[in-house]
Design a protein that fits this description.
Structural class: alpha/beta
Strand order of the largest sheet: 1-2-3-4-7-8-9
Largest sheet: 7 strands, mixed
Distance between the termini: 28 Å
Number of helices: 7
């Protein structure tokens, strides 16, 4: 079972989470683009994205172009992008190409989620709710959490016409199973432009439940513990 499927199963097992697809809606509203979940008394609107095989393949192909060069290192097991590229003479050029692909991928996630969260808040009249984008990665082994979270933070800080570009995303939670710490996946909580305007109760609620939920999720998956970073 993929990380995407496991996380969906986990979230829907929580009593405070509603799967939006299971809510009775009329035909027009059902066909509209919406987020995936409502949580904690509908205080949170959550959209889930998972880096898929196709996107992983495009990034992997870019790296593997250099696999037969004499400067390409030999690895056993999982590889970090920086370790793979650090000895290549044109590593900066290669990094730019790969990071450009990563940025486009993450931008598409942010753009889609921003619209889905906005439409969901309007549909259910949840103007004060907190928009959360959940990004899962168990496919792209060459991408470290640092690379992904840095790109996400850069995009969340962008503005258009003096307003945040992704104004409906208050938090992004990134979960990576490709860079485990002592066998435990890394979970990173990234604040959006308007996160600070939300009540401290909501912020603390999200962080606490990200941590506690991660522990519960790992127990359900048969592994104890987690590493949660902010």
């Amino acid at each position: 079972m993929s990380l995407d499927q496991r996380f969906e199963k986990f979230l829907l097992s929580l009593p405070s989470v509603e799967g939006i697809d299971s809510i009775e809606l009329d035909y027009v509203d059902r066909k509209s683009k919406k987020a995936d979940y409502l949580a904690m008394g509908r205080k949170f609107v959550i959209e889930q994205k998972c880096i898929n095989e196709d996107q992983a393949g495009k990034i992997q192909i870019e790296v593997e172009k250099y696999a037969n060069t004499e400067d390409y290192p030999v690895f056993y097991g999982k590889r970090d992008l920086n370790l793979v590229l650090e000895k290549l003479p044109n590593r900066d050029e290669v990094k730019r190409k790969i990071y450009s692909r990563v940025t486009k991928m993450l931008e598409s996630y942010l753009r889609q989620a921003d619209k889905q969260i906005e439409s969901t808040q309007a549909l259910f009249n949840l103007k004060e709710s907190c928009g959360v984008l959940l990004i899962l990665n168990d496919k792209v082994k060459v991408l470290s959490p640092e690379v992904v979270t840095t790109r996400i933070q850069q995009r969340l800080n962008e503005k258009r016409d003096d307003f945040p570009r992704f104004k409906n995303i208050d938090y992004v939670i990134f979960v990576s199973e490709t860079h485990n710490v002592k066998g435990v996946p890394v979970i990173v909580v990234i604040e959006g432009a308007y996160a600070s305007s939300k009540s401290s109760e909501i912020s603390e609620h999200l962080l606490l439940n990200s941590f506690l939920g991660a522990i519960q999720w790992r127990r359900m998956s048969g592994v104890s513990g987690c590493r949660c970073l902010r």
